[in-house]
From TrEMBL:
Record organism: Apodospora peruviana
A Pfam family: Glyco_transf_22
InterPro entries per UniProt: GPI_mannosylTrfase
GO biological process annotation, one example: GPI anchor biosynthetic process
Top-rank lineage group of the source organism: Eukaryota
Record's protein name: Mannosyltransferase
Length: 517
């Protein structure tokens, strides 16, 4: 029964990996889009983290995670006799499958090794596999998802070194040095999770200086390699030894210094320091958060999670995904209720919680953005695209169309200003615009992409000539929820939920305007 349950949960994880939800722009702009611009000829958009004078994002961890699969995919594409560039949507789904495989193999394997007792191990693996965080966040291309795997495997390596000091501890130390440096360049929050478990290594390395020398040498070599790659990426000319010695790009240091300034964090949103503990953690764990406080199992996994939560709570910009590494550590460090009635209630609540949040985050959350970009890449007349009240769209999915298509993200712009912008960009209404599909033969076209729940547009959509604009709906995707469009203060709770959920969906309109002859 347990094996069948686990295999079913693996299939559920794969199904969510292949669903086009869009949890946060960082899953594209801090990873795949950067490397796709290096390997393929797709025009891409580099966000401020990569364009500032002191860049804070390293490309070193991006190459083995995303670069190597892209290179392999391109080699297979060319090897099969295909002409031209591989479609970016094929790369997108390949990376989703890759993240599923990494989660299925590395995360579950790590939990299997970290939990020693067979019964506790079985419960831990099932809990992790049945969590919506595993289904959704871990199958998306987040640096936080990679950090989860790196933290788990550092704990595995530490446990191997301490438990079996005579069995290839030198090799394990070398691997630990490489993985630890990789983790730091991936996210500077990584050391917070391995600080307490790493203390276990102090007495061991005191007795085994050879292994200590190996971890230092491996870490130093990996650090130099990472600095060289970052310096080469951010230097506008071919780098020299002088650049590496006198002008190295130290992205982890830049990131650390950036996050020390409250004024910088204020640009991304400030939260109370209890946000992680009282809001974000229950949001990720659901009913398991109760077990964390009532039935915890003391382990270095739990200490690792606690140290990570404590350090991350010091900073005032706190997003739920920052705590992803703690989820498998906590789920493998709690004990289920002993009483059968309480256990049944807890299991039912656990299933309901993860089904609801899995459906919300894995299917509907900004779920129309990726399909919309694929649709826009196939519109021959599209030259202007205005995105309103959605996340920033990944332009690398436009398959080269962005050479002629200007994508403008106006975020939550006021409706009146949106109309002014559309009036400026819209092409003149022609007879072709009124005939079925004839508009595709036009040389220029302006499109508005917005959620159906944006009711402010309703008076203008019937094409009564209001504002001098005409809207022609050309595409709709129903599995889309825009949770950033919630306005409880003005509309009330029931009206807001009725609007956002009842009118779920993402719509694309072709916008034209009346012009004098």
């Amino acid at each position: 029964m347990w094996r069948r349950t686990y295999l079913l949960l693996v299939l559920v994880r794969l199904w969510f990996a292949l669903s086009p939800s869009y949890l946060h722009p960082d899953e594209n702009f801090q990873g795949p889009e950067v490397i796709a611009g290096q390997i393929f000829s797709y025009p891409v958009r580099h966000t401020w983290e990569f364009t500032t004078e002191y860049p804070i994002r390293s490309v070193f961890p991006l190459w083995p995670v995303y670069g190597l699969p892209m290179l392999l995919l391109r080699w297979l594409w060319i090897g099969n006799g295909n002409d031209g560039e591989i479609p970016p949507v094929a790369v997108f789904w390949t990376l989703r499958v890759l993240m599923f495989i990494l989660s299925f193999v590395l995360e579950d394997w790590a939990i299997y090794e970290l939990v020693q007792k067979p019964r506790n191990r079985l419960v831990a693996v099932i809990l992790v596999a049945s969590s919506y965080v595993t289904w959704t966040y871990q199958t998306h291309t987040f640096s936080n998802s990679i950090e989860t795997l790196v933290v788990a495997w550092c704990l595995v390596l530490i446990q191997r070194i301490v438990a079996f000091p005579q069995q290839s501890s030198v090799l394990a130390s070398a691997v630990l040095g490489i993985v630890a440096v990789f983790g730091v360049f991936n996210r500077i929050t990584f050391p917070a999770f391995v600080l307490i478990p790493g203390i276990r290594l102090v007495p061991y390395y005191w007795k085994h200086p050879g292994s200590f020398a190996m971890i230092v040498l491996a870490g130093l070599y990996t650090t130099l390699l990472a600095i060289a790659l970052d310096t080469a990426f951010y230097t506008p000319h071919s780098i020299t030894w002088s650049d590496l010695i006198f002008h190295p790009v130290l992205t982890p240091l830049n990131n650390f210094l950036y996050n020390l300034k409250p004024s910088n964090l204020a640009q991304h949103g400030l939260h109370p320091r209890y946000q992680h503990l009282l809001v974000n953690l229950p949001q990720l764990l659901g009913p398991a958060a109760i077990l964390l406080f009532t039935r915890p199992h003391r382990s270095f996994r739990l200490y690792s999670a606690i140290s990570g939560i404590f350090v991350l709570s010091i900073l005032q910009h706190q997003e739920a995904r920052f705590l992803l590494p703690t989820v498998p550590l906590i789920l493998s460090s709690v004990r289920l209720p002993k009483k059968e009635t309480i256990l049944r209630v807890w299991v039912v609540s656990w299933i309901i919680f993860n089904l609801i949040f899995g459906t919300l985050m894995g299917i509907y959350h900004q779920g129309g953005i990726v399909p919309a970009q694929v649709f826009m890449s196939r519109q021959p007349d599209a030259t202007q695209a205005v995105w309103w009240k959605t996340y920033m769209p990944p332009i690398w999915l436009l398959n080269g169309k962005n050479e002629v298509l200007r994508t403008q993200d106006v975020m939550g712009m006021k409706g009146e200003l949106l109309l002014e912008e559309l009036a400026r960009l819209a092409t003149c209404d022609t007879p072709a615009d009124r005939r079925n599909m004839e508009y595709l033969k036009e040389k220029n076209g302006t499109y508005l992409i917005a959620p159906l729940s944006a009711t402010w547009l309703d008076p203008y959509l019937p094409n009564k000539g209001l504002g001098g604009l005409r809207f022609r709906e050309v595409w709709r995707h129903r599995q889309h929820l825009s949770l950033d469009d919630l306005d409880f203060a003005e509309d009330g709770v029931w009206n807001t939920l009725s609007r956002v959920i009842g009118r779920r969906g993402l719509v694309i309109w072709r916008v034209t305007k009346s012009c004098p002859r």
